[in-house]
Specification:
single chain; mainly beta; Immunoglobulin-like; 3 domains; 7-stranded mixed β-sheet; binds CU-O-CU linkage; binds copper (II) ion
């Protein structure tokens, strides 16, 4: 028995000496042994479950039961345990709803949060739907009550998502596990898939990334509780980063291109996703749909609420283990409170690992541009806008306790309408951030195009690359101004909607306003 503790190449042979003192070696040419690093075992990747619809008169009907105290298994590199969480339909993981542009959808939400005694809603994040169906805090669902949302999908294929939005409990309900992905397809995307210009099937993977903190388990009960703390300015930052409810999962992949739809469903954390071998990858889509042209990058930053679709090519990586990581970045707000987390916003960490264990021939040649008729190729220009509205995000009261998160110096008031927008209008919304941490600004109802961005008060730089994609959530850095332009659809957009910071603790604590789209 020979064992090696070092990686490398070694020559071995046996040398025997007979009674006469003649030695001979076997085999006569030494064996060369290669010792490669054995990757450490990691928990297995889990796919999000797809909800099945019942189709009634061509309408896809779904039920989402908001449940509490559901025993959920959490796998991590240091073992598995059970944690009571909130879940839709008692599922072990957050679900996915699949739909196609043009589909009529009806989703009934039943509020079973009886012992928490909390209102809930399901908000359709990134959807172009009427205000009354939007699931905002103005239409809460009481305990034991239910509500059916009805809408027709009328927008480009996109990685949309849904989550509770009752005022004051959004952050904790999302943290405890109520959220889901809503993957919309359309004819353009389907034809790219059918002509092998986008990966499909097992090569199309949804990643819901959320950070969490769990109690210790000193008595080895196999159970841990979620730990939630909201102190300081940062919002809830967990010290364990879960992908589809598994900490640091390993996904076995083949030597081919993969389409990853990344959902940042975290309460407050921004990720700067990159590969640990510094390989480049393509970003093909943003919050509201595919980019006209895939954009080659070596990292992509996603703030809370943002999504992106990326293509990673493992074609040259047979037998390698490649990590998806979040790189270090400066999150500002020095020492202003990491919420007690040992993993601050901007700290680097590993997210998951791709184990390239299977060789295959990749049928996919990635698309190079979308057809002209794709929504994203109708660019909105400054000249089309009738109105520019300005929104300033700020914080006050750093001196401990009573910190306030404001938009235009106002705290959210559910009875106040902050902006009135004429249906059919094309508008520029100009967002600035005078605080010292970044805030992801999100507006309901439409998908926006970013016009330009830059230092507040300076010359703004016109969008290029990833910024040319559809956006519903945009990270605005301290002292930065971002201008985006959007059109409120005259048929779809009517009623009240929210705009807010998507750091859910900021939203729940006042960094939100209401706009009313009127005919
Ligand atoms: Cu994802 Cu108003 O929220
Ligand atoms: Cu939203
Ligand atoms: Cu914020």
């Amino acid at each position: 028995m020979v064992s090696f503790s070092t990686v490398g190449s070694f020559n071995i042979s046996l040398v025997a000496t007979d009674a006469q003192g003649n030695s001979s070696s076997f085999p006569s040419t030494p064996l060369t042994i290669s010792v490669v690093a054995q990757a450490i075992a990691l928990p297995t990747f889990k796919s999000l479950p797809i909800l099945t619809a019942s189709s009634v008169n061509g309408v896809a009907q779904y039920t989402l039961n908001a449940e509490e105290n559901v025993d959920v298994t959490v796998d991590s590199p240091d073992g598995s345990w059970i944690t009571p969480m909130m879940r839709y339909n008692d599922l072990p993981l957050q679900p996915v709803i699949l739909a196609k542009r043009g589909d009529e959808v009806e989703i009934t939400v039943n509020n079973h949060l009886t012992s928490s005694n909390e209102e809930t809603t399901a908000h359709w994040h990134g959807f172009k739907i009427p205000g009354v169906e939007d699931g905002g805090p103005d239409f809460p669902i009481a305990v034991n009550a239910s509500r059916t949302y009805r809408f027709t999908m009328n927008q480009a294929a996109a990685p949309l998502w849904f989550h509770p939005h009752a005022h004051g409990t959004t952050a904790t309900q999302v943290y405890k596990g109520l959220a889901g992905a809503f993957i919309l397809t359309d004819d353009i995307t389907q034809s790219l898939e059918e002509t092998n210009q986008l990966p499909t099937g097992d090569n199309d993977v949804a990643l819901l990334v959320q950070d969490r903190e769990f109690s210790d388990d000193p008595n080895n009960t196999g159970r841990r509780n979620l730990v939630y703390s909201n102190t300081g300015a940062s919002g809830m930052l967990g010290n364990r980063v879960l992908v589809n409810n598994v900490e640091m999962p390993a996904l076995e992949v083949t030597t081919s291109q993969y389409r990853f739809r990344i959902f940042n469903g975290s309460n407050a954390r921004t990720y700067d996703f990159a590969l640990d071998n510094n390989s480049t990858f393509y970003v093909i889509g943003t919050d509201g749909g595919l980019l006209n042209q895939p954009e080659l990058v070596d990292h992509i930053m996603l703030a809370a609420g943002e999504r992106a679709e990326v293509i990673i090519n493992f074609g040259d990586s047979f037998r390698q283990n490649i990590k998806l990581v979040s790189r270090a970045f400066s999150a500002g707000g020095g020492g202003m409170g990491g919420g007690g987390s040992s993993l601050a916003n901007g700290d680097p960490f590993d997210v998951m690992r791709f184990d390239v264990n299977v060789e295959t021939t990749d049928p996919v040649t990635l698309y190079t541009s979308l057809p002209n008729e794709a929504d994203i190729n109708s660019r909105l220009t400054e000249a089309m806008s009738e109105t520019t509205r300005t929104f300033v995000m700020s914080m006050s009261g750093m001196g401990g306790g009573g910190m306030q998160f404001l938009i235009n110096d106002k705290l959210f008031d559910i009875d106040r309408i902050d902006e009135v927008v004429p249906s059919g209008a094309t508008e520029i919304w100009e967002i600035s951030n005078t605080s010292n941490i970044a805030h992801p600004f999100h507006a309901h109802a439409i998908q926006w195009q970013i016009l330009d961005r830059g230092a507040s008060g300076g010359t703004l730089t016109p969008s290029k690359g990833i910024d040319l994609g559809w956006k519903d959530t945009v990270l605005v850095e301290p002292d930065e101004t971002v201008r985006f332009i959007g059109r409120f659809d005259p048929v779809i957009n009517i009623g009240k909607y929210m705009y807010h910071c998507h750091i859910l603790e900021h939203e729940d604590n006042g960094m939100m306003g209401t706009f009313n789209v009127i005919q």
